[in-house]
Amino acid sequence: MSFSPHTQRDTNGSYTFSSRPRAVETRRRYRETPSELTQMNYGNIMYDRRVVRGNTYAKHVIPTTTQQDLAEILRQQEIRKRALARKRALDQLRPRTPEALQGRKHIDVQTELYLEELSSVTVAADVECQTDDFLDRPATPLFIPAKSGKDAETQIEEGELFDFDREVQPLLEVLVGKTIEQSLEEVMEEEELASLKAQQRDYQERRNNELAEVQRLQEQERRRTEEKVRRISQQKEALRKERETAEKIAARAYTQQYLADLFPSVFSSLRDHGFFYDPVEKDVETHFLPWLMDEVNNRLEQRSAARELLDNIIYDVVQRRLEAFEDVKTPPENI
């Protein structure tokens, strides 16, 4: 195999470098700041990536020189997505505040020295601006000095320059150590999460027990309060009935005393006004006597009508006889 032209072989068989070794320049991970971009001087503006050629509304074709940068950007974005997903998973495993009771909710409380008005409405404003598309700055090409000196070639046999087993041992130790360390950290993290979950379960059980005890005490206090109110209402009702009974007894005694002399006078007055009567006498006065008077009046009217008729008949007879007597008494004129 051929060796680099920058190395030379001494007479004793060892290799030396014609130029001092130097570390590879580190490529910047992100694009340069505007101040750094302004410091760069381009020889030809046509090679400036910020200059858009052709139709600005057409789709830009990504140059082949920036494909590697885009692949690096995509890889970094994938790494960021994985980191965010890992962070979300850790957030879900992290112990949180227990859920609020039924009918309650957690609220944010201000603990600052000066209170501020909290508003759920976020003031936002939409601003639009048309800008040109900027691509990431391509990596600076590695500086290669001008060729100087004479080229020399040498043949390196197997095992002379690189021993894989000896060289890879530190790398394997580092990889294995890092893997074991990461595994131990993950195991410890899982144990810590399990311990936190156990503590959270214990806290939840104790909290539920305390809530049950509080509810039992509240229910007991409520029953006692209800019993107290019921006993007070019963006592008030008993006192009210007792007071009413005493008032009734006093009223009854006063009434009896007042009505002792009132009854005879009232009965005598009612009797005088006809409210107390004999049924037979009342029936005779109400039904028999009116009927008897009606019958007597009818009989008297009949007698009076008969007498009047008889008087009329007698009067007619007397008149006729008187006329006849007058006729007889007066002599005829022709005799």
UniProtKB/TrEMBL annotation:
| Entry annotated with the keyword Ribonucleoprotein | no
Which organism's genome codes for this protein? Xyrichtys novacula
The subcellular location is: Cytoplasm, Cytoskeleton, Flagellum axoneme
Compositionally biased region (Basic and acidic residues): 22-31
Biased composition annotated in UniProt, kind: Polar residues: 1-19
Tell me which family the UniProt entry assigns to this protein: Belongs to the flagellar radial spoke RSP3 family.
Residues of the region (Disordered) are 1-31
Protein name, as recorded:
Radial spoke head protein 3 homolog
